[in-house]
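quick one, 111 residues, struct below
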Amino acid sequence: TAEELANKVIAHESIQFMPMVMPMEEGYLTGFNNEIKGFEEAYTFAPGIGTIPFVGYVFKLADGADVEAFKATLEAEANLRWNICTAAEEMVCENVGNTVFFLMCPMSLAG
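---
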């Protein structure tokens, strides 16, 4: 599930902060300038304290959905400076089938 994937990603040894994983609904999501719609299920994974410029999502799209158009929307609406005090340096947006992985983070966590 999207939740299991989000928990596996945030449990990686490179994550050195207290993580949280939460379900998301369509609408205004952290890190984006406008509403994000078009997914069936989504989970966010992020630090428990918002001063770290790190936010990730696992989106599950419907079978037959236009995955490339959804990814293009994410990339166009992403705001690396969504965090008032800091800015993310890297954005990653990839998919496997209809599962889309999206991340904005410091370069030290991108690899």
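The chain is about 20% helix and 30% strand.
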